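Subject: Re: docking follow-up (adenosine-5'-triphosphate)

Dear J.,

Thanks for your patience while I sorted out the input files. As discussed at Tuesday's group meeting, I've set up the holo structure prediction with adenosine-5'-triphosphate included as the bound ligand rather than trying to dock it afterwards. The sequence and the ligand SMILES I used are pasted below, so you can double-check that they match what you have on your end before we go further.
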Amino acid sequence: MSEPFGEPVVVGTDGSTGAIRAVEWAADHAYLRRVPLRVVHAVDRLPYDAPRYPIPDSYDRLTPSGWQILGHAERAARERRPGLEVTTELVEGRPGRVLRDQAARAAELVLGSHGAGGFPGMLLGSVGNQVAGHVPVPVVVVRPAPPEAADEIVVGFDCSEASGPALAYAFEEARLRGHRVRIVCAWEPPVPYGPVIAFEPDETRRAAEEYARSELRPWQCGYADVKTELDMVRDHPVAALVEASSRAALLVVGSHGRGAFAAAVLGSVSRAVLSHAHCPVAVVRGAARR
Ligand SMILES: Nc1ncnc2c1ncn2[C@@H]1O[C@H](COP(=O)(O)OP(=O)(O)OP(=O)(O)O)[C@@H](O)[C@H]1O
Ligand SMILES: [Mg+2]
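The structure tokens for the complex came back this morning:
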């Protein structure tokens, strides 16, 4: 088994069911990657700093309750993967900020799409929004419902260089799990202006597929032991990826950062699939590892 990262996988928990799903996913993942797991809880005092109706001693209860949350998560991880090296860390600060800072000492960050807060109908919590795409390491957002048993990893491929790190992550993960990789390349004919249709859809599709296949060839050669399928889907990329995610163990997308400044910004496809996908989503940024 190859070992691409030496740093631990870091998972954030607030003690909620959604976070425990993330802890379990992270334990599986760290075990497969043969790296330790670090469970982190951020003690967020801000909501208690200027309370209108102060609750006696509530401020002092945050630290012991944080350790309890960590203890619960640590037990869940150890039960899931006996023998896995698990450490815990209690950090003062806002959860999004704390987890972003953790990226400097992590191979990956894992968190839940939902936590203890939120509101009915919310698709992605504030922490996911503040972390995904904002750190150089991959961020995996795990949904609260257990995913369907699946043996494929879906990766979004837009034929751009930004897909490289996502492909590398998907192939590596598929190799470790013994899964196949389904490469979803969504395409749409350009919208015609006026009554004349200037683009022949079949021709556009053929050209897109030919280009995609040539771009993918080096990856398929490099990971000859991993089965792959290319799906050319005539649809919006979000619709195509969300549909494919219903049969996937994991959906992998790039962050679509372009250049140093825009690198901190998540592309619209990645942002949308983080909210709508049916399975865990990995957002991968950084240099491609072939
Ligand atoms: N205090 C925290 N410490 C560590 N990780 C946290 C903390 N709070 C949230 N997380 C991580 O973020 C995930 C999503 O929680 P998040 O707070 O974003 O959603 P929420 O609580 O449902 O809504 P809200 O954005 O209103 O707080 C959790 O499952 C957990 O992995
Ligand atoms: Mg929260």
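A couple of observations from a first look. The chain has two domains: 9-142, 152-284. The radius of gyration is 20 Å.

Let me know if you'd like me to rerun anything.

Best regards,
T.
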